[in-house]
Amino acid sequence: MNIVIKGVKASRREAPLLVIAPHSTFLDSCISYVTGFPSIIARIEDGLNPWVGRVINFTQPVYVRRDDPESRHNTIQEIIRRVKSDQDWPQILIFPEGTCTNRSCLITFKPGAFYPAVPVQPVLLRYPNKLDTVTWTWDGPGALKLLWLTMTQPTTTVEVEFLPVYVPSEYEKQNPKAFAEGVRNVMAKALAVPTADYTYDDCRVAVKAGQLGLPMTSNLITVERLRSRLGLTRIKIEDSALVKNMLSFQNRESQPIDLAEFANNLNVTVEDGSLISLFKMHLENEHLSTIDFKKYLL
């Protein structure tokens, strides 16, 4: 494996946290060697693995159960304790995306690494190989197949680039999500890739939807995100609209409404970008200017 290093790694005093992205393969573990074996955030299952568990334990990791909200809280508290401690803890290495992607964008960074409100050093990973045999995502070839394909290549190159230390503003110190977003934007710009507001939890929803045979799983996620932005997941406007229109729904096969009527029914301003996007997603074809409100609610 050929490792190309660009930039200079910051010391623990300069940046207690190393933020690594994009996370796309099990080969990303090489970053631990390059950075001097810092502590890592790892799933509890990884520590129990007979092959890599001992190596992980050597780094004095912080273990987390991704499906346990209480575990996430404890993880954040442990990160804060270590980075603000006077003891000689190693730097903490974090993959803030929380899952593997195909490197085509940077998905939402989890805010856990940013709660301590201390400077972080962004670190980029690139795999500039002619043939991609390393990308390991939730919907693709398994690890053993990828490992076999990688071993058939003459060499596999990974570029590790240390960016300048990112010092949070006063606003970002008080807002971990804004801090995470700022770091993500810097890294995306350096990688020349877009950002995407998807998370590990969205991937789980997509997988579950696929298992249930539901089509357009990515659209399901997008619809829920738009409804959340409009506040429709917190209030019962759609339920009220369903009750209000139930009689007319029974007497007709469909109920076409335009954008203005859609906004009025949901009590949202017609200029709202999220509303417009939600409306367009329910157009049966691009030549129509109305959607079936009955189908939307039911």
From TrEMBL:
- Which taxonomic lineage does the organism of this UniProt entry have? Eukaryota, Metazoa, Ecdysozoa, Arthropoda, Hexapoda
Acyltransferase among keywords: yes
Task: Identify the domain of life.
Answer: Eukaryota
**Protein name as annotated:** 1-acylglycerophosphocholine O-acyltransferase 1
List where the protein spans the membrane: none
> What keyword terms does UniProt attach to this protein?
Acyltransferase, Lipid biosynthesis, Lipid metabolism, Membrane, Phospholipid biosynthesis, Phospholipid metabolism, Transferase, Transmembrane, Transmembrane helix
Q: Can you say where in the cell this protein is located?
A: Membrane
The record's listing under InterPro entries reads:
LPCAT1-like, Plipid/glycerol_acylTrfase
Give the pathway listed in the UniProt entry for this protein: Lipid metabolism; Phospholipid metabolism
A cellular component term from Gene Ontology for this protein is: endoplasmic reticulum
Gene Ontology annotations of biological process type: phospholipid biosynthetic process
**What family does this chain come from, according to its entry?**
Belongs to the 1-acyl-sn-glycerol-3-phosphate acyltransferase family.
Q: Which GO terms describe its molecular function?
A: lysophosphatidic acid acyltransferase activity; O-acyltransferase activity
> Which organism's genome codes for this protein?
Schizaphis graminum
- Where it mainly occurs, coarsely classed, is membrane
Give residue ranges for domain Phospholipid/glycerol acyltransferase. 17-128
